[in-house]
Write a structure and sequence with these properties.
The complex is a heterodimer of chains A (263) and B (250).
Chain A: E1 2-14, E2 17-29, E3 34-38, H1 45-53, E4 60-66, E5 76-79, H2 91-99, H3 110-120, H4 136-149, E6 154-158, H5 166-183, E7 186-191, H6 194-200, E8 203-207, E9 214-219, H7 228-231, H8 235-249
Parallel strand pairs in A: 3-7, 3-8, 5-6, 6-7
Antiparallel strand pairs in A: 1-2, 1-4, 8-9
Helix pairs in contact in A: 2-3, 2-4, 3-4, 4-5, 6-8
Chain B: H1 10-24, H2 36-46, H3 52-83, H4 85-98, H5 107-114, H6 118-142, H7 146-154, H8 159-195, H9 202-211, H10 215-243
Helix pairs in contact in B: 2-10, 3-4, 3-6, 3-8, 3-9, 5-6, 6-8, 8-9, 8-10, 9-10
Classes of the chains: A alpha/beta (263), B mainly alpha (250).
């Protein structure tokens, strides 16, 4: 799955007033990479992700989403800030519902796929519980599991761990690393948490505050498989966090729209 | 409602007790306000021989057909209005205009159209249920959170499955609110509709008893209506707990 955004812009019009969500954003997401988009709140990063998902349309520029083999239409998966699980379905049926008429899984054993992905996030024993009977962290784990289970070409994640407490967030970040390093799906992950971006990403796109513009693009050259606890002790990790921090602190009118690639 | 179940009986039993004392002590005229014990005796031992069960059956039959058909049509139209802007634009103004009209006020009109027989009384009950279930279901469909629409769109859920497994369950708490309001309103309407022109039914029993000054039978009819209302809402509460276990949960 290859995503190419060229001078992408989005303007909301409401009651005759125009609000620029983001403008002049260019980047590429390569097949099989973990791509993070970092920026302060109000930089349009959620809107950008929703545009990639087809839930919003862009106002200017071009967006090209192309499956690598070029055969069938690209299929996206998305994990939202709030879990988005259906309260009237058991955890298992929440996964199953998205798989039932997925053309990609035609002929496969849907039940086996449900079990496999629930097991990956350690929730096999809770499959028959309803969302209101489990913790927020468990709900978000189901949300991650079902998005991987649909076997999308690209997985879009919109600050999926933002409402979790610190402990649960660490656990889910580690779990996400495990699943991702095993499956190597193309992922676009939005967050305002710089450390989270460095922990997870192959590359990080840094956006400026309102309206969102590209402040920089970093390669995160940290070894995989990654262990959250071990990674944080590396000097290179602190260095990346520092660099993103300084990019965010730079006034957005320094170099609007320019892309700085760090070696 | 979160009342302590141990005290639920207190106010109704207390009111009956005070009534009983007032009648027996002569503070109330027993001809107009017979003691509750006398009314119960009359209800259990006298009027069953005078066709009480036929009256109950007649009213239940009208409620059953009117309520179930009216509610089903109301819920179906509300789902269509909630999901389709053209259908909503087409139907909503007419619904909003006709909704506030007291349904019993159009009984004469309905009789003009459907005749003075059984059908008119079913139709008027049906119209009452239709509007209440429609308005509440529409609210329920509107309140299905945007994130569920987004999830369905991103993952390519087909329209029929989306309606059956997302919209209807999502609106179910509001549908139940409508169903509970409509069953109470159905009782009101069926009694009023039976006051004129009917030859059976609890409303007919109450009206007939008043006309022949059988005051105990009149009260017995009122008691039966109250008991039916209580039974219906308890049944719907039970059904709701079974079908909507996630209500008011995150």
């Amino acid at each position: 799955m290859q995503v190419t955004a060229t001078q992408l812009g989005k303007v909301f019009r409401h009651n005759g007033r125009e609000t620029v969500a983001f403008q002049d954003i260019s980047f590429q997401i390569h097949p099989g990479e973990f791509f993070c988009i970092v920026g302060p709140s109000g930089c349009g990063k959620t809107t950008l992700l929703r545009t990639l998902a087809g839930l919003e349309t862009h106002s200017s520029g071009q967006l090209e989403i192309r499956p690598v083999n070029g055969a069938d239409a690209p299929r996206v998966g998305m994990v939202f800030q709030e879990h988005g699980l259906f309260p009237w379905m058991s955890l298992r049926n929440n996964v199953r519902f998205l798989l039932e008429d997925s053309p990609r899984l035609a002929g496969q054993d849907v039940d086996a796929a449900c079990d496999r992905y629930l097991a990956k996030v350690g929730l096999s024993a809770f499959a028959h519980y309803y969302p209101h009977q489990v913790s927020g962290g468990m709900r978000q784990r189901v949300s991650v599991a079902r998005s991987f289970a649909t076997e999308p070409d690209i997985l879009l994640m919109d600050e999926p761990f933002v409402f979790l407490d610190y402990q649960a967030r660490l656990a889910l970040q580690q779990q996400l690393l495990l699943i991702w390093e095993e499956t190597r799906k193309t992922v676009a992950f939005v967050t305002h948490d710089i450390e989270e971006a460095v922990l997870l990403a192959d590359r990080v796109l840094v956006l400026s505050e309102h309206p969102g513009r590209v402040q920089g693009l970093l390669d995160i050259d940290l070894p995989r498989p990654r262990q959250v606890a071990a990674l944080r002790k590396l000097p290179a990790y602190a260095d990346y966090v520092e660099r993103i921090m300084s990019l965010l602190q730079r006034n957005s009118d320094d170099a609007p729209g320019s892309v700085e690639a760090f070696p | 409602m979160n009342l302590d179940r141990r005290w639920l009986w207190l106010s109704p039993v207390g009111a009956l007790l005070i009534w009983e004392i007032c009648t027996r002590s002569g503070m109330l005229d027993a001809r107009f306000f017979p003691a509750p014990s006398a009314i119960m005796h009359h209800l259990v031992f006298v009027i069953p021989q005078q066709g009480l069960f036929a009256d109950i059956a007649a009213s239940l039959n009208r409620i059953f057909w009117g309520y179930s058909l009216g509610s089903a049509l109301g819920a179906a139209l509300a789902v269509a209005m909630g999901l389709s802007k053209p259908v909503r634009a087409l139907c909503y103004p007419l619904v909003a205009l006709t909704y506030p009209i007291p349904k019993i006020a159009i009984l004469p009109l309905i009789m003009l159209i459907f005749g003075i027989g059984e059908l008119s009384r079913i139709v008027v009950v049906g119209i009452g249920s239709f509007f209440l279930v429609l308005m509440n279901t529409l609210h329920g469909v509107d309140s299905v959170a945007r994130i569920y629409h987004d999830v369905a769109k991103v993952y390519g859920i087909g329209r029929r499955r989306f309606i059956a497994r997302v919209i209807v369950p999502g609106a179910l708490p509001s549908i139940f609110t409508g169903l509970k309001l409509a069953i109470g309103y159905s009782l009101v309407i069926v009694v009023a509709a039976e006051f004129s022109g009917a030859n059976a039914g609890i409303g007919y029993l109450i009206w007939q008893s008043w006309e022949t000054f059988s005051i105990k039978s009149m009260y017995a009819g009122i008691f039966v209506i109250g008991a039916l209302g209580l039974a219906f809402s308890a049944g719907l509460e039970w059904l709701e707990r079974r079908l909507v276990p996630w209500r008011d949960k995150p």
